Amino acid sequence: MKSKPLNLNATAQQTRVLEASKAMGAVAASKAKEIMKLNSQAAQKMTALIQEKVTELLQTSNPKSVFDMVHAQILQDAAKEVVEYQTAVLKTLGAGNQELVQIAQTMVEQSKEDLIHFVNEATENAPIDAAGFNSAFQDPFKAALQNFELMRAAMADSFGSFEKNVENMTALAKAPAQKRTAKKA
Asked: How many Cα atoms within 13 Å fall on the side-chain side of residue 14?
């Protein structure tokens, strides 16, 4: 059997890991920028809302009507704005999480392919009578492939759980607002 040197392609692997890290950093940075923008918009909306309501309150002379206005209208408007803000933030976080999962899945798949390539080269270069050598590579290799599949399943479960949590938090945030709207009607 002709022996050829093992080609580990360490530089290519390191480059892929570096690129994936950069991509993950870019996703995190872009989502942080989106959340900062949402924070700024929410602050501007709340400031405008408060200014508007303070103007209305200053024009009201009856203390009971001021209390009713604050309780009924101002607090409900503020709660509505908070729910909209929470929904937008959760949507942004969900999109970012989905992008990160895709990057991680790509990295897992590339690592799996690298491992397959490495084991194939190692067993091809083994002497003809090295069945033990081949077995020493093949058995851990099969276990490693199973681990890759477990990692992929865990990532999918994690993403699914995150998505359900986002949906539940959004539903919880919207429920009080919907109850208030139903009471008004």
From this structure: 4
